[in-house]
Design goal:
Layout (H helix, E strand, L loop, with lengths): L8 E6 L19 H13 L4 E4 L7 E2 L2 E2 L10 H9 L6 E7 L5 H15 L3 E6 L4 H4 L10 H19 L11 E4 L4 E4 L12 E4 L4 H10 L2 E4 L4 H14 L11 E10 L3 H15 L2 H12 L24 E2 L7 H15 L3 H8 L4 E4 L1 H13 L5 E4 L9 H6 L1 H6 L12 H5 L9
Parallel strand pairs: 1-2, 1-14, 2-5, 5-6, 6-9, 9-10, 10-11, 11-13, 11-14
Antiparallel strand pairs: 3-4, 3-12, 7-8
Enzyme class: oxidoreductase
Family: Belongs to the NtaA/SnaA/DszA monooxygenase family.
Pfam families: Bac_luciferase (PF00296)
Length: about 425
């Protein structure tokens, strides 16, 4: 194996409501209590991670007209939590997912700049768009935007936010801001002086062609979903190749897929633990719910240990509200049927196999080596770890895998800077007065 020429990057994701976290496990804590956020953040900082990452929920999801959030319901607003975490951490980056669809540039730019000041330059923003009218009902204008309009709004939103951040000179003078675009008109003065990083680090998670172009033009980090080596390498090569058209270089954008991990003293033990975790994540009830979200119809009469439905999905179903279907329902159904038939899988077994994220499963040494291989072979610049237990699920990785990465020269042995940009090896933005 060739030696790494650069260190890999690590971040920690505090899961929201999904089929990764096993909230029913007796070791799981609260998704609301601050001690949960503090524990995971302190563990990530002890492990010298680049940043701590929070999701956003703008509306409680519904299924068949009832609130359905996989064992837990509700979560605090992300930037509020990060401001509190700034007081109990010293170096760890603090990143929040905030929608560019249902926020305004001036207000969000102010909150992020404030977090950057309070944390000493550790703020990050995961820019997302929101696709559904169901979520829009929680906001005055309601409705939703088509995909192209969402990305145009997001691009203008980020451009306007950067104008606001640049409106204070490096020597501390405020200058008026003027911005007139299709979505926003801003005239006035920004109230927050230029922050330690200049601009908070921008993260992006879209995988469409529009999302890839947006990331190549504007993002510092991509939170990708491509878990296999082959898919990761294809995505990595595609996005990195887009940078030159925007006057950017290979290392100006870090690609960090979201991954899970399961450790064991032997590979066999790790595989056994991983299988048990997947069974916990996909209970019989959740298997039927996952199936209904694809098929768009009531399948409560189906046996989770029986075969998949022979009927086709209903493409425009509103059975599940507040979440986006995972691709074209007909294509997903066909893929699931083929998988089920090829391996003789039941509904629950199919959902377990088809919806699992890429996991690094094995001994600590095997996981460390596999992570190195992904970076060596150009599938990632690092990883955003999504533990299945909150808040203590990261402890074992920090205790057992991080030291092995450090021994191999694949991960830092101490923070060399104080800002999130320094952790990621990103230059401070040039002031554009």
């Amino acid at each position: 194996m060739t030696a790494l020429t650069r260190e890999l990057h690590l971040a920690a994701h505090f899961p929201g409501v999904n089929n990764t976290t096993v909230w029913s496990d007796e070791r799981s804590g609260s998704q609301i209590d601050f001690t949960s956020f503090e524990h995971l953040a302190r563990t990530a900082e002890r492990g010298l991670f680049d940043f701590f990452f929070l999701a956003e929920g703008l509306r409680l999801r519904e299924h068949k007209g009832r609130v359905h959030d996989l064992d837990v319901v509700g979560r605090p607003e992300s930037i509020t939590v990060l401001n509190a975490l700034a007081a109990v951490t010293d170096r760890l980056g603090l990143a929040a997912t905030v929608s560019a669809t249902f926020n305004e540039p001036y207000e969000l730019a102010r909150r992020l700049a404030s977090l950057d000041h309070l944390s000493g330059g550790r703020a990050g923003w995961n820019v997302v768009t929101t696709s559904d009218a169901f979520t829009g009902e929680n906001f005055r204008r309601g409705g939703y935007l088509d995909r192209a309009d969402r990305y145009r709004r997001a691009e203008e939103f980020l451009h306007a936010a950067r104008k606001l951040w640049d409106s204070w000179t490096p020597d501390g003078a405020a200058r008026p801001v003027e911005h007139t675009g299709a979505h926003f008109t801003i005239e006035g003065e920004f109230t927050v002086p230029r922050s330690p990083q200049g601009h908070p680090v921008v993260i992006q998670a879209g995988d469409s062609a529009e999302g890839r172009d947006f990331a190549a033009a504007s993002a510092d980090v991509i939170f990708s979903r491509h878990g296999t080596l082959e898919a990761g390498r294809a995505f990595y090569a595609d996005v990195k190749a887009r940078l030159a058209a925007h006057g950017r270089h290979h290392d100006d954008l870090k690609i960090m897929p979201g991954v899970t991990f399961v450790l064991g003293d032997t590979d066999a033990e790790a595989r056994e633990r991983a299988a048990e975790i997947r069974r916990q994540q996909i209970s019989p009830q959740n298997a039927i719910l996952a199936l209904e979200q694809i098929w768009g119809r009531d399948l409560s009469s189906y046996d989770p240990d029986g075969p998949l439905p022979e009927t086709d999905p209903e493409p425009d179903s509103a059975l599940a509200q507040g979440r986006v279907r995972a691709g074209d329902p007909f294509e997903v159904a066909a893929r699931w049927r083929a998988l089920s038939e090829a391996k003789g899988l039941s509904i629950r077994q199919t959902v377990i196999e088809a919806t699992g994220r890429q996991s690094f499963v094995g001994t600590p040494r095997a996981v460390a080596e596999e992570m190195r291989r992904f970076v060596d072979l150009g599938a990632a610049d690092g990883f955003i770890l999504v533990p299945h237990i909150t808040p203590g699920g990261l402890d074992e990785f920090v205790d057992r895998v991080v030291p092995l990465l450090q021994e191999r020269g694949a991960f830092r042995t101490g923070y060399s800077g104080t800002t999130l940009r320094s952790h990621l090896g990103l230059a401070e933005p040039i002031w554009k007065g």
